[in-house]
Amino acid sequence: MSKRWRSVSGNDVYAVLGFAEMYLKRHMKDPESFTVVERHGVQQNDDGYRVILTYRARNGFGGMRVESAIVHLDEEKRGRKIITLD
Predict the structure, then answer these.
(1) From CA 71, how far away is CA 18, in angstroms rounded?
(2) For residues 31 and 13, what is the distance between their CA atoms, to the nearest angstrom?
(3) How many CB atoms lie within 10 A of CB 35?
(4) How far apart are the first and last CA of the chain?
(5) Do the bridges between strand 48-58 and strand 64-73 make them parallel or antiparallel, or are there none, so unpaired?
(6) Distance between CA 72 and CA 78 in Å, rounded?
(7) Domain count, the chain
(8) Residue 1 falls inside a structural domain
(9) Does the residue 34 lie in any domain?
């Protein structure tokens, strides 16, 4: 089993990005304010996928913030965890 991350290409990129964005949006305090600013790439290893996204969303105090996160998905593209980078 390879733990080494490798780039994903083709139609898989769009599917993985869509699932990652939905998973991240579901975990927002105000999901309706969630907007993707930048997609930094999709990588895969034998455990699943990781996507790095920069997004804008409303925080608990009502202010808009721009943050980045790594979203991990399993092999079936189900969300496993979110690691915020900011």
Answers:
(1) 11
(2) 23
(3) 12
(4) 31
(5) antiparallel
(6) 8
(7) 1
(8) no
(9) yes
Indicate the burial class of 76 (C-beta count within 10 angstroms; 0-12, 13-18, 19 or more): exposed
User: 1 in helix, strand or coil?
Assistant: coil
Q: Which residue has the tokens 């721009």?
A: 66
Token representation of residue 44: 């895969």
pTM, full prediction: 0.86
12-70 pLDDT tens trace: 899 999 999 999 999 999 999 999 999 998 999 988 999 999 999 999 899 999 999 99
Give the pairing of strands 6-7 and 64-73: unpaired
Domain with 21 in it = 6-84
Evaluate the CA torsion angle 52, 71, 23, 33 in order and state its sign.
Answer: negative
What type of residue is 48? G
Residue bearing tokens 């949006």 = 25
